Task: inverse folding
């Protein structure tokens, strides 16, 4: 009988996206957060109004809507995490929502911000919001700003504000230079979607663009944050972990696990040591040990294999377009998108 008391190398997955109207893309979006196993998502330009009810099976929602069906920001937090909403001031030209999330033994502040292209903003306005966000923090936003630090070929006026805010609040840009907004040729793609984090989080984060716009002209952004060691209740596993273990993987896993707890107090290290060994052995199994379920809930009750097949095909069509960027490839994307929409409607009925 084996006893598991600890989990290590656990990550929280955060999705950021300018969706440009969430309702017509809702089924595709639910499939995306299901496939990417998102714990938190941040959306701007939702185009929602207060009379529209929007629910997610696994996520709690906080949102800010406009009176007219444009703009708007929304955050989703998985229901297994406790959180509270942070009240932000109402500032003309800036739409934002924020919350403080409890992740294991850490507190993390996540804010979703949208600033329209023609809005007149100043550094004091943005500082008033940043000052209310406790550190460590993530600021996920479409600033409609061009900056060399996040992949643009030049710096505009707004980029100066962002650079100053990063210096004043000890933050850094997570973007790696990849383009986040796609347009029709010959217009060049641009990087308008920014992910900012406290400098203390930078080494724990990985950032990448999802190569499928899902009907928007902005690409989703996915990044992962290392949650560190977690102590969980004991679980009995009636299985001999030495029968089907890959010792090379085991060595790698336990080395990573020990590095994750090296800065903990000595007594806490001792309490976690047995759990680290057992959890590394489980992760290094060549076969799934008994009691582990790999079943994943489908995005919606009517989702079947045909939906998944068409969904994957649409993503592949877009990847081909990104390589060639020709108008005839763009027509193929529109046809694939229409096919998905028709299939969704037929499945629902």
Result:
């Amino acid at each position: 009988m084996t006893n598991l008391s600890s989990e290590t190398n656990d990550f929280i997955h955060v999705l950021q996206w300018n969706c440009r109207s969430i309702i017509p893309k809702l089924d595709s979006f639910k499939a995306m957060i299901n496939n990417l196993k998102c714990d938190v998502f941040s959306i701007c330009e939702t185009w929602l109004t207060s009379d529209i009810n929007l629910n997610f099976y696994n996520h709690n929602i906080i949102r800010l809507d406009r009176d007219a069906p444009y703009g708007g920001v929304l955050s989703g937090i998985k229901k297994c995490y406790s959180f509270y909403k942070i009240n932000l001031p109402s500032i003309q030209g800036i739409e934002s929502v924020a919350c403080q999330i409890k992740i294991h033994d850490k507190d993390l502040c996540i804010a979703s911000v949208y600033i329209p292209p023609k809005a007149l903003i100043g550094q004091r306005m943005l500082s008033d919001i940043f000052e209310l966000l406790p550190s460590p923090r993530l600021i996920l936003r479409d600033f409609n700003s061009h900056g060399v630090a996040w992949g643009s070929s030049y710096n505009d006026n707004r980029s100066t504000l962002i650079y100053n805010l990063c210096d004043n609040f000890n933050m850094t840009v997570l973007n790696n230079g990849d383009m986040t907004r796609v347009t029709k040729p010959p217009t060049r793609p641009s990087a308008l979607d920014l992910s900012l984090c406290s400098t203390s989080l930078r080494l724990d984060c990985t950032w990448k663009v999802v190569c499928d716009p899902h009907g928007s002209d902005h690409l989703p952004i996915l990044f992962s944050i290392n949650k560190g060691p977690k102590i969980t209740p004991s679980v009995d596993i009636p299985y001999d972990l030495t029968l089907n273990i890959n010792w090379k993987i085991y060595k790698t896993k336990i080395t990573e696990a020990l590095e994750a707890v090296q800065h903990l107090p000595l007594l806490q290290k001792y309490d976690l040591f047995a759990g680290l060994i057992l959890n590394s052995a489980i992760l290094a199994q060549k076969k799934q040990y008994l009691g582990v379920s790999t079943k994943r809930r489908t995005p919606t009750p009517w989702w079947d294999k045909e939906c998944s097949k068409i969904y994957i095909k649409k993503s592949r069509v877009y990847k081909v377009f990104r390589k060639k960027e020709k108008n005839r490839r763009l027509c193929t994307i529109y046809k694939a998108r229409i096919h998905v929409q028709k299939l969704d409607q037929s499945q629902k009925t």
In short: Confidence is low (pLDDT under 50) at residues 1-9, 230-235, 289-295.
